[in-house]
Each structure stands twice: as structure tokens, then as C-alpha cells.
Write a structure and sequence with these properties.
Elements (H helix, E strand, L loop, with lengths): L1 E2 L6 E2 L13 E8 L3 E6 L5 E5 L15 E9 L2 E9 L27
Antiparallel strand pairs: 1-2, 3-4, 3-6, 4-5, 6-7
């Protein structure tokens, strides 16, 4: 920041716009139609819509079961997948987590290293 020598107003120079990277999510292609499809999200038990134009690559290379990474935007008050990139097979891992309480007993303890 520096004052302008003629007007005295403070001005900024040499600025660089820094845009934080959008949050990325992972999932698996679970449905493909004529020009759109759905991704099964790894973080939630939910599918998310995507349009083929959002795939970064040749859409002919994208197949059912492919692992992908994507961003999410709101369009028409709904979440849609954007900036979709194909990941190497086996990258996406689904974890089933429950908050249900269960009763039982430990039959065998795990060895720790």
C-alpha cells in the first residue's frame, strides 16, 4: 500500500489474487446416461449429479465403476459435481460408519506392532 503522490489516496500495487482451492471429494461413477450421470459419493451415502461437460478429459474414457475426484457447486438449489477428474483404480475407499450402539463381547484381540 502506498499513497498516490498527486491525490494522496492510498492505493495497492503488485497484488496477486489468491483463490483458495475448492474442496475436493471422491466417489465412483454409478450411472451414465446420454449427457449426464451420477457419482456415488465416498463421504456420504448419497449420489450426486454431473454433466459430461464437467469431466476434465475425454468422456469416452469414463466408465461405470471408475474412481473420480470432484468439486461441488450449487445449481438450481441442488448440489452438482464439477471439475471431475478420473483417479487410478482403487483410490476411492468407502467406509461404513454407524452411530448405532451394539452389545457384544470381544472374542479375539488384535495384535499391535
Amino acid at each position: 500500500l502506498a499513497p498516490d503522490s498527486q491525490t494522496g489516496t492510498v492505493q495497492a500495487r503488485g497484488l496477486e489474487l489468491v483463490i483458495p482451492p475448492s474442496q475436493r471429494y471422491q466417489g465412483v461413477i454409478c450411472s451414465m446416461k446420454e449427457s449426464f450421470g451420477f457419482i456415488e459419493r465416498a463421504d456420504l451415502v448419497r449420489e450426486i449429479f454431473f454433466h459430461y461437460s464437467e469431466f476434465r478429459g475425454n468422456i469416452d474414457d469414463l466408465m461405470l465403476g471408475d474412481d473420480v475426484e470432484f468439486s461441488i457447486q450449487m445449481r438450481n438449489n441442488k448440489e452438482v459435481a464439477t471439475e471431475i477428474e478420473k483417479l487410478p483404480d482403487g483410490t476411492v475407499i468407502f467406509e461404513d460408519v454407524t452411530t448405532d450402539k451394539v452389545t457384544g463381547r470381544i472374542l479375539k484381540t488384535l495384535k499391535t506392532h
